[in-house]
Amino acid sequence: MMRGLCYSAVSYAPLFIERVAVVIGDTMLALRSTAELASIAQKVTLIAPTHGELSSSMGQRVLEAKNVEVLEGFRVEAVLGDEYARKLVIAKGDDKREIEADAFFVELELEPQSEIVAHLVERDELDRIVVDCANRTSDEGIFAAGDVTNVVAEQVLIAVGEGAKATLTAHEYLLQLPK
Question: What pTM did the predictor assign?
Answer without folding.
Answer: 0.79
